[in-house]
Amino acid sequence: MEISKTKLINACIVGAISAVIFIVALTIMADLYAPLKKLLKDAHHHHWVGKGIWATILFVIVASGYYFIKKIDTNESTTRFMRALTWTLIFGALTLFLFFVYEFFKH
Amino acid sequence: MDIYLFLVIVHLIGTALGVGGATFIEIFLTKALRDGHVDPIESDFLKTTFTVVRAGLILALLSGFGFLLYYQLNGQAFKLYNPLLWAKLTIVIIIAANALLLQAHKISLYWGSAFSFVSWYGALIIGVFLTNAKSYSYFEVMLYYVIAVIAGSIILDLIRKSFSAKA
Amino acid sequence: MITPLLTFSLILHVILGIVGVAASYAVWLELLKKSPSLSFLKKSSLISFFSYLLSWLSGGYYYVVYYGDIQKPKIIAGAYPWAHKIFTEAKEHIFLFLPFAVLALLIVIWKGNQDLSQNEGLRKGAAFLAGVITVLGLLIALAGIIISGAVR
Questions:
Q1: Which fold would CATH assign to domain C4-149?
Q2: Does A104 touch chain C (CB under 8 A)?
Q3: Residue C20 per-residue DSSP state
Q4: What ipTM was estimated for this complex?
Q5: Of the four, A18, A22, A66, B22, which is 20 to 30 A from B135 by CA?
Q6: Which of A9, A18, A67 to mutate to test the interface with C (most CBs of C within 10 A)?
């Protein structure tokens, strides 16, 4: 694959990884720290909308940063990044689900 | 024609294509394997039948979720917790998972064809039970399903063997 | 009171969600072949991305405008409060992942081209990603049924 194509692909994958991690972290923090949730709600009408907007901004920043800063990229790194994204999705989903189960039984 | 009737018609068409297609996959496979291998023409028939089954699955799935929406929007949300519905959903997921396993060659024809055939008929029968307000627990239905898959695998294998013996 | 626009949003959310799951399943199934059809992968991944995105937006509208004020209190006060506290909370946040993940997969397929059939590692990695996206989409759909059934 040409380097610029590979960089674009990897940039999107890395952007997606950062967005997923960010969503998990922000969700847990906002649930445990009410002022953060209130801040998101006041700024964006609803905390969920705020999380979506900030995740999108982070995705664009990280993906662009990766694309413009990285000099050399390979096919092998694409495969590695894809697997990393997949595992991030799995652990992110599990973490959130278990967190909400814990919160339900705690209260 | 009201929306509910439309959903019933689409769902029945999807089911007919799926059940009919699954039946003909078994028939074509049995005929094809009489001589021990699947030739290009036989493979072509099978591929066409797989496409018909997939079209049936998509129609059944979309109309099925259409029913769930209909129940929610018409004050019948309690139907969404019917154990028969969840058994049917499980079986539909098994149909899809089985297709993946067959594609990836991670399941033998012996079990793959049994799961496909029994699952489609199982989903059809549960659909009839749902329409006729029959009451069974989820685990009861799944137990019958497992028994049917085991019995189905034995019967389908015997049929295939008897046809290849005659060839 | 539910308006026609909200009803339409809910219908769009559910139907497009199922189309998204079916399309990402089609991508997964195709990537399991040794020589997948690039044209089929491109179409399916595009349908998957736009379906998930539009389902996200229409569901988000319904959730923000109607669910929070009208349905959530009913569920929490009813016999199945866990339907909201566990399943809605998990669903609304896990669904946030999907458009980013599906976009990444879309770019891999559209820009990856011949490499998907020539590079087995790349193809298997993409199949794994498509599989997890499909399973998450499916679990989110099932969670939606649980939540809807709790509104009585």
A1: Four Helix Bundle (Hemerythrin (Met), subunit A) (1.20.120)
A2: yes
A3: H
A4: 0.93
A5: B22
A6: A9
